[in-house]
Design goal:
Distance between the termini: 79 Å
CATH superfamily of the largest domain: Histidine kinase-like ATPase, C-terminal domain
CATH architecture of the largest domain: 2-Layer Sandwich
Bound molecules: adenosine-5'-diphosphate
CATH class of the largest domain: Alpha Beta
Number of domains: 3
C-alpha cells in the first residue's frame, strides 16, 4: 500500500490535516475553558463583594451577626451559586444552596485570606456532579465586630456541559473532516496521477519495433504534460537514430552484396568445365583481376564503415600530433597528380604558409584524399583541379575546386549523407584510394568536425564544384614562414 504514490500522498494529506485540526481544536478548547473560568471567577467575585456590602449594611442597620448573615444569603440571588457566611472559627451562620451544591468552606477557616481566594473543589469533595468553583473572603462587617467569612460557590455543571458539548462536536467533526479530506485526496490524487498511469501503460507497449508510438499528453502546459512532451521528443530522437541505423544496415548490405555477387559469378564462370578446348591463362587472369578489383572495393567499403562505426561509438581515439598542414596538402596533392595525369587533368596547388597544426595526420590525410578523389572522379579530361589554403581570422581554410560536372541541385543536400551517391556509375570509376560507396564525404566531414572545424560545399554548378574545409587555428600552433607548396 505504501508503494503507491496515491496512498502515500493521501496519508500525508490526512496526517497533516489531522495535526492541524488537533492543534486547532486543542487551542479552541483551551481558550473556551479559560474564558469560562474567568467568567465564573468574575461572578464569584461580584457575589463576594455584594455579600460583604450587604453584611456591612445589615450590621449598620443594627442586625445581629446571625441576622445579618441570614438576610445577606437570602436577599442575594445569583444564578448557579450557593452562598454562605461563616464565623472565623468555621461555624456556619447562614447559607443558601444551589441544588445539592453548598458553599462549604474551601480551606481551614484561618487560611482564608482578606482578599478573595479562589478554589476549585472536585465533585468528590463536594458531593456534586461536576465540582465547584469557590471564592472565599474574610470580611469585617462593622467596626469592632468579629470578622466573618463569606463564601460563594459556583457550580461547574454548566461549564462542564459546554466543554462536553464542544468535545463532542470535535470528536464528531474532526474524524468526519479527516475522512472527507482523505476521500477527496484519494480521488484527487487518482485524478492527477491518471496521466502518469496512462503514460506508463503506453510506455510499456513501446519497443524498438514500435518507436513511432507516443505518450498521451493530457495538458502540454502542466508539469506532467511537459514531462510527456520531453519523453516524446526523446522517442522522436530515438526513432530517428533507429531509422538511420536500419538505413545504414540496409545500405551497407546493399553495397557489399554487389561486389560479392561479381566475385562469385567470376569464380563460378571460371570454374565451370570449359566447352571444347582448355581454358586459357588469359581467362583466369581476367577473372582474377576482376576478383581483385572487387576485393579492393570491398576493402575500401569495409574500412570506411569501420571508421564511421568507430567514430559513432566514440571509440576512434584521436592520435593528435604536430604536423605541417601545408606539407600534408602537398603530399596528398602529389598522390593525386599521378592519377590526374593519366586522366589528362591538371592539378594546381596554390601558395601556402608553413602552417604548424595539431591534429590527427592519418585522418586529415584521408579527408583531403577523399575530396581530391571526388574532384578527379567528376572532372573530365582537360579539366583542372585546384587546391588552395588561406588563413582568415584564426581559421585555416582549405578549398578543393574542380572544373567538373558539378553536383545536381537536388543531390546537393544529400552528398554528406552516408551511402549517398548521385552518380553511381562514375563513383566506381578509377580513384586514388579505392572506389567509394558514398561514405567519402561523410568521413571527410566527420574528420573536419573532430578537429573542431567544418566541411561545406561552397558552390557547385555546371562550371565545377568547390569544397571548403575550415580548421580553427586554436586547434594547433602556427608558423608564418612564407613558402610555396
Ligand atoms: P563516393 O565515395 O561514392 O564518391 P562521396 O560521399 O565522396 O561518395 O560523395 C557523394 C556523392 O557526392 C558522389 O556520389 C558524387 O555524386 C557527389 N560528389 C562529391 N564530390 C563531387 C564533385 N567534386 N563533383 C561532382 N560530384 C561530387
Amino acid at each position: 500500500m505504501f508503494d503507491s504514490v496515491r496512498s502515500r500522498l493521501t496519508l500525508w494529506h490526512v496526517a497533516v490535516l489531522a495535526l492541524v485540526l488537533l492543534v486547532f481544536s486543542a487551542g479552541i478548547y483551551w481558550l473556551l475553558e479559560h474564558n469560562l473560568q474567568a467568567r465564573t471567577d468574575a461572578s464569584v467575585e461580584a457575589a463576594l463583594k455584594a455579600m460583604e456590602h450587604l453584611l456591612a449594611y445589615e450590621r449598620a442597620e443594627g442586625d445581629t451577626e446571625l441576622e445579618a448573615a441570614r438576610n445577606t444569603v437570602v436577599e442575594l440571588r445569583y444564578p448557579q451559586m450557593a452562598l454562605a457566611v461563616y464565623t472565623t472559627d468555621g461555624r456556619l451562620l447562614a447559607e443558601t444552596r444551589y441544588g445539592s451544591s453548598r458553599a462549604v468552606l474551601p480551606a481551614a477557616s484561618d487560611e482564608i485570606p482578606d482578599q478573595a481566594g479562589y478554589y476549585t473543589l472536585s465533585d468528590t469533595d463536594t458531593a456534586t456532579e461536576e465540582g465547584l468553583r469557590v471564592g472565599a473572603k474574610r470580611v469585617t462587617p462593622a467596626a469592632g465586630a468579629a470578622p466573618n467569612i463569606v463564601v460563594a460557590a459556583h457550580s461547574l455543571e454548566q461549564i462542564s456541559e459546554e466543554l462536553r458539548a464542544l468535545r463532542q462536536v470535535f470528536m464528531l467533526a474532526v474524524p468526519l473532516a479527516l475522512f472527507l479530506s482523505g476521500l477527496s485526496g484519494w480521488f484527487l490524487t487518482r485524478q492527477s496521477l491518471a496521466p502518469i498511469v496512462a503514460m506508463a501503460e503506453r510506455a510499456e507497449q513501446i519497443s524498438a519495433a514500435s518507436l513511432s508510438q507516443r505518450l498521451p499528453v493530457a495538458n502540454p502546459r502542466d508539469e506532467l504534460g511537459r514531462m510527456a512532451v520531453t519523453f516524446n521528443n526523446l522517442l522522436s530522437r530515438l526513432e530517428q537514430a533507429f531509422t538511420q541505423q536500419r538505413q545504414f544496415m540496409a545500405d551497407a548490405s546493399h553495397e557489399l552484396r554487389t561486389p560479392l555477387h561479381v566475385i562469385r559469378t567470376a569464380a563460378e564462370v571460371t570454374l565451370e568445365p570449359p566447352q571444347g578446348s582448355e581454358r586459357e591463362a588469359r581467362e583466369y587472369h581476367e577473372a582474377l583481376s576482376m576478383v581483385n578489383d572487387q576485393a579492393r572495393r570491398l576493402t575500401r567499403i569495409v574500412e570506411d564503415m569501420f571508421t564511421l562505426a568507430r567514430a559513432d561509438a566514440g571509440q576512434r581515439a584521436m592520435e593528435y600530433g604536430d604536423l605541417y598542414l601545408d606539407e600534408l596538402l602537398l603530399d596528398t596533392a602529389r598522390a593525386a597528380t599521378i592519377l590526374a595525369a593519366s586522366k589528362g587533368i591538371s592539378v594546381e596547388i596554390g601558395p601556402a604558409q608553413e602552417t604548424l597544426f595539431r591534429g590527427d595526420e592519418g585522418l586529415l590525410r584521408q579527408m583531403l584524399l577523399n575530396l581530391l578523389d571526388n574532384a578527379l572522379k567528376h572532372t573530365p579530361s582537360g579539366g583542372r583541379v585546384s587546391v588552395q589554403m588561406a588563413q582568415h581570422d584564426e581559421v585555416y581554410e582549405i578549398s578543393v575546386s574542380d572544373t567538373g560536372t558539378g553536383i545536381p541541385a537536388e543531390a546537393q543536400p544529400h552528398i554528406f549523407d552516408r551511402f549517398y551517391r548521385s552518380d553511381k556509375a562514375r563513383s566506381r570509376s578509377e580513384t586514388i584510394n579505392g572506389a567509394g560507396a558514398g561514405l567519402g564525404l561523410a568521413i571527410a566531414r566527420w574528420v573536419a568536425e573532430a578537429h573542431s572545424g567544418s566541411l561545406t560545399l561552397l558552390r557547385s554548378d555546371a562550371g565545377g564544384s568547390v569544397f571548403s574545409v575550415a580548421l580553427p587555428a586554436s586547434h594547433g600552433a602556427q608558423n608564418k614562414n612564407q613558402h610555396s607548396l
